[in-house]
Structures are given as C-alpha cells and as structure tokens.
Design a protein that fits this description.
By secondary structure, this protein is of the alpha+beta class. It has a single domain, classed as Alpha-Beta Complex (Creatine Amidinohydrolase). 28% of the residues lie in helices and 27% in strands. The chain contains 4 helices and 15 strands. Strands 8-7-9-14-15 form a 5-stranded antiparallel sheet. Strands 1, 2, 4 and 5 form a 4-stranded antiparallel sheet that branches. Helix 1 crosses helix 2 (37-50) and helix 3 packs antiparallel against helix 4. The structure holds 2-amino-4-trifluoromethylsulfanyl-butyric acid and cobalt (II) ion. Residues 57, 60-61, 63, 68, 77, 94, 96, 105, 168, 199, 201, 232 line the site of 2-amino-4-trifluoromethylsulfanyl-butyric acid.
C-alpha cells in the first residue's frame, strides 16, 4: 500500500536526507585512486555517526557495512573490502541515514581520475536518467511514467536499464511501497498522490542488463562485465512538482 506522508513526517525526513546529501558530497571530495572501498565505507560510517544518525544499511538483512561501494561492473550492493580504487574506475556509493525515526537514501557514481569516454558518458547519462525520470512528475502522475522516461533516455543513448533492482518508497522503513522500476510503459501504474516519498534510482549498464549476485549474497555485477552506474535521490511528490530531499 502506498501511503503518502504528512507534512509532519516529511519535516522529520529532512534531517536524515540532509545527512545523506552532505555525506555523499563529503565522500565525493575525498574519494580517489589508492583508496580502498573499505576506507570509503569508514568515511561514511564516521560522517553519519558524527551527525547523530545511524547508517541504515549496517546490519540491514545482514548487510555488513554502512555504504554500498560498487566499482565498474558491480551494479549495486558492492560490499566494501580491500579493493583499491584505480584511475579510470567508476564507483557508485549508495548510503542511507536513519534519524528522527525516518530514513534518507541516496547514491552517486564518482569518476576516479580520468575515465574512458564511454564511462564518462555512462555516468552522465545515468544522472540525466534521474532528471528525465522526474521531469513533469507531480501529484496525479502515473508511477510508470518515471520508469518509461528513465528507460527511454538510457536506451536512446545505447545503454540498458537494470531490471532486477528498483527504486522504492521510503519512510520509517528503508524500503516501502511502491517499487519504482527503471523500465515501464507510459501512462500506467498507480497515480502518485501528493506527499508520497520515493527514491528514484536509475541503475544503467553500458552493455546488457543481465546481472548476477556473487556468493556473498549481495554484490550484483553485470554478466557481460561491462560497467554500470547508479544515481539516486529521495524526493517528495508535490501538487506542482517534486521536492528533492537529498540534493
Ligand atoms: N540504499 C540501497 C537502496 O537504494 C539499499 C542498500 S541495501 C543494504 O535501496 F543492504 F545495503 F542496505
Ligand atoms: Co534506494
């Protein structure tokens, strides 16, 4: 069931969402070649704790870290470890903060030094997919208009959208209804009501959309080994548009 939030609930969500936004910027200023994905996770953990919040991912369904750090062919849910970031890598950092009884959720894909022309375009198009997806979004919009717009922009650029992971509602739980797929048919799905809070998160692959999950039960990677990128924000559907809480 999709339950729109009250203004009181939305007010409480601003703080965890602000922390997500600032944490992503903090990571973006520091991430670079020579750093391990574990060190990225430590930055996230310390930042969130210093804000008096909790890293929602840590312990979620047994997830062992505060952030998902997904390098190159890893699409999402990369578990931070000793992998050293190298020039040319693209790295998605996805994190959630819990404060005031609510979660905020966001992700960015960072370029490590100079990246290939294709990876540069993949990161840019993935961000564009988010903004295309929410273009015109307001109370009354059919949910899968978002999905359609994300898919159209990705495929027009020769990329594919990941099928097996979606965006989602968010609030007192990290994942609430509705699921927000990155592919779909225009004009279909439930009409979004004002006050609905969702995470729109294009996950776009340079090659095919097929993914597998490693033996660790989390790390999702493209079966063709091509790179993938990810970009996510938490937003409120308003009568006249959207309010992005993590940007
Ligand atoms: N932040 C992710 C999302 O966008 C969820 C991460 S799964 C976790 O839905 F286990 F790492 F928490
Ligand atoms: Co999310």
């Amino acid at each position: 069931m999709i339950r729109p939030k009250t203004e009181e609930e939305i007010a409480l969500m601003r703080e965890p969402c602000r922390i997500v936004k600032e944490c992503l910027a903090f990571v973006g200023e520091r991430i670079g070649a020579g750093m391990t994905t574990k060190e990225v996770d430590e930055l996230v953990y310390r930042f969130i704790k210093a804000e008096g919040a909790e890293p929602s991912c840590l312990g979620y369904c047994g997830y062992p870290a505060s952030a998902c750090v997904s390098v190159n062919e890893v699409v999402v849910h990369g578990i931070p470890d000793g992998r050293v970031l190298e020039e040319g890598d693209i790295v998605s950092v996805d994190l959630c903060a819990y404060k005031n009884g609510f979660h905020g959720d966001g992700a960015r894909t960072f370029r490590i030094g100079k990246v290939s022309e294709e990876n540069d375009r993949l990161v840019r198009v993935t961000e564009e997919c988010f903004f295309r997806g929410i273009d015109g979004l307001r109370a009354g919009t059919p949910l899968y208009d978002i999905s359609y717009k994300v898919q159209e922009h990705a495929e027009r650029n020769g990329f594919s959208v990941i099928r097996s992971y979606t965006g989602h509602g968010i609030g007192r739980e990290m994942h609430e209804d509705p699921a927000v797929p990155n592919f779909g048919r225009k004009g279909t799905g439930p009409r979004l009501e004002a006050g609905t809070v969702i995470c729109v998160e294009p996950m776009i692959a340079a090659g095919g959309w097929r993914v597998k999950v490693k033996g660790d039960g989390w790390t999702a990677y493209t079966t063709d080994g091509k790179c993938a990128a990810h970009y996510e924000n938490t937003l409120v559907v308003r009568e006249d548009g959207v309010e992005i809480l993590t940007l």
